[in-house]
Amino acid sequence: MSLTSSDLELGADSGTDQLVGMRFNNMSVPPGASITGAYVEFEVDELSSEATSVTIQGQATDNAATFASATGNISTRTRTSAQVAWNNIPAWDTLNAKWQTPDMSSIIQEIVNRPGWLSGNSMVIIIGGTGRRTAEAYDGEAPAAPLLVITYMTGGAPTPTPTVTPTPTLTGSETPTPTGTPSTTFTPIQTGTATLVPTPVAEHRRQVFPPGSVRVSTDQPLGDLAVLLLEPAAPDSFFQWGFFHEVLSRTEYVEDYVMEPMAERMLAEDPDLAAQYLAKLEQDPDFRGDSEARLQWFYEKTPYFDERHLLYPVARELAGE
To answer: I need a surface site. Which of 18, 64, 203, 274 has the fewest CB within 10 A?
Structure first.
């Protein structure tokens, strides 16, 4: 079970068939709504033309739980009776092209018809099959992560839901290939596009800023405006309007086949690192059982690791420091 892969391989990874799970949060579909359309949209990450067919199902639960690294965390989830075949997927021969699944209305309908379904709950979509089509994942390129689009009706005109952008909730796949989970906002009666951004989390650190950095004082007539524009959690901040979304995309990452021999060399050349690694294996059973987490641990100790991934480039200066 992997939670940190940079792409999403539908069908198989390195010749091994796998299941891929995607968790979508805050699904504001009313209980019992009539689903008139639903699909997931993927963006091509790697070119491939081999014969590929997959089956799509949902998790048969009222409010899908987050993924965990335990073995079988996807395959042991009860799935919907409704399923959709996506057979003979055409060749993905253009990078960054968009591909949509066949209509998944029956799957979404089964979930929202459950007696415990509530607006705002989470859904999980599970895909498995043969062949290979490789799509972008949240950890690889957040703005290109899978999008779930649903159209529903509640006793009136059909309500198209917006195409959504992802929030940083992990999804998973058994054998490498998870992605981040998009969340979606539905606006009954109206049609529109909603862009959702991650919830910022503050951290306290000492930082030396490079030459050319600008200090914006709030002790000025427009100080409140400066706070509203620069504080990322403010509803009308630059961040909420998408001006800093490049920090959500990882610019550097490595594939497993590159990281594995590199990790072996690092262990052989650095006894202190080897001791740290053995200690973590001993103390952390989840780490010990997750090959992707182990490779990620080594990657974070290389000069290629992107330390500024998900780091907002504006700091708040604390008084007296």
So the answer is: 203
